[in-house]
Design brief:
This protein folds into two domains: about 140 residues, Rossmann fold, CATH 3.40.50; about 140 residues, LD-carboxypeptidase A C-terminal domain-like (Glucose Oxidase, domain 1), CATH 3.50.30.60. Helices cover about 25% and strands about 25% of the residues. By secondary structure, the protein is an alpha/beta fold. α7 runs parallel beside α8. The protein starts with 9 loop residues before the first strand and ends with a strand. It has a seven-stranded mixed beta sheet with strand order 6-13-12-7-8-9-10. A six-stranded mixed beta sheet has the order 2-1-3-4-5-11, with helices on both faces. α1 links the parallel β1 and β2. The chain is built from eight helices and 13 strands.
Length: about 300
């Protein structure tokens, strides 16, 4: 298990995807400093190459440098967007495997979570610095602090009519549905058998959601789960001829034939309340008529 952070530790902020300015990071910088952490900004911050935070070579070099720097205790991805899959296969994780450190982010960073999961190392799916200071994000930021500093967390969520009751135990994996779909068949693809999978997505057409769920099901990603957590499906779009189902109804259709417990409307994803989840850690999901709970097995 990765060591908890201590006051005085040094963390890095980089961007493996879309460009971002240091000005946009001011609320996050103040927060991390209030936690007693020293922040190092990578070369990708303030860099620009079209929509990216510098070209592939620069973003790769930045990520690699922070992975290899023993003084850096955690790497926080500043934002998502698109771009991480362009560089992930060139990253050398040799030193990282010997001295693991936290890597934090969500959305496009699902690529990193999945890739590192295959190394047997935990990561943190959580709010990113570009969102610090926005309305409603205080609790999301606090859960990140609690995970980083080694505090034990457990979460609850309200009942949902689509929930399927039961108890699941297994490693927690997942993230952005579109990215998990994109990673299928690559070195970053994850085996979901016996694991608790969580899903979220943003700004997708409903038929895209259906197509991705069909693909994940056909490729065996949904059949042998221990449990499923369905997070936010935000800003879904439809065609002129309606698809006829919501994102949750689509997921229900493709997972309804299985028997594992399922929790819907869990606060993870592209909404202000985005609870920090430890990818790769053994967890217990309990779904009852009263709602759902998620805790870690230490």
């Amino acid at each position: 298990m990765i060591s908890a952070l201590q006051p005085g530790d040094k963390i890095a902020i980089i961007s493996t995807a879309r460009k971002i300015t240091s000005q946009e990071l001011i609320p996050a910088l103040h927060t991390f400093e209030n936690w007693g952490l020293q922040v190092v900004l990578g070369q990708s911050i303030n860099a620009s190459y079209n929509q990216f935070a510098g070209d592939d070579a620069l973003r790769l070099q930045d990520f690699q440098q922070m992975l290899d720097d023993e003084s850096i205790k955690a790497i926080v991805c500043a934002r998502g967007g698109y771009g991480t899959t362009r560089i992930i296969d060139q990253v050398d994780f040799t030193k990282f495997k010997k001295q693991p450190k936290w890597v934090i982010g969500f959305s496009d960073v699902t690529t990193i979570h999945s890739h590192i999961h295959n190394l047997g190392i935990e990561t943190i799916h959580a709010i990113m610095p570009v969102l610090f200071g926005r309305v409603g994000t205080i609790d999301s930021v606090e859960t990140l602090r609690q995970v980083l500093f080694g505090e034990n967390l457990s979460y609850t969520s309200a009942p949902h009519p689509f929930n399927r009751t039961g108890t699941a135990r297994g490693q927690l994996v997942g993230g952005n549905l579109s990215m998990l779909h994109t990673l299928t068949g690559t070195k970053s693809d994850i085996n979901t058998d016996g694991k608790i999978l969580f899903l979220e997505d943003l700004d997708e057409y409903l038929y895209h959601i259906d197509r991705m769920l069909v693909h994940l099901d056909r490729s065996g990603k949904l059949s042998n789960l221990a449990g499923l957590i369905v997070g936010d499906m935000s800003d879904m779009k439809d065609n002129a001829i309606p698809f006829g189902k919501t994102a949750y109804e689509i997921i229900l259709e493709h997972t309804g034939k299985y028997n594992y417990p399922v929790c819907y409307n869990f606060p993870v994803g592209h909404e202000p309340l985005n609870l920090a989840l430890v990818c790769g850690r053994e967890a217990t999901l309990d779904v009852s008529e009263l709602g759902a709970s998620l805790g870690y097995n230490f």
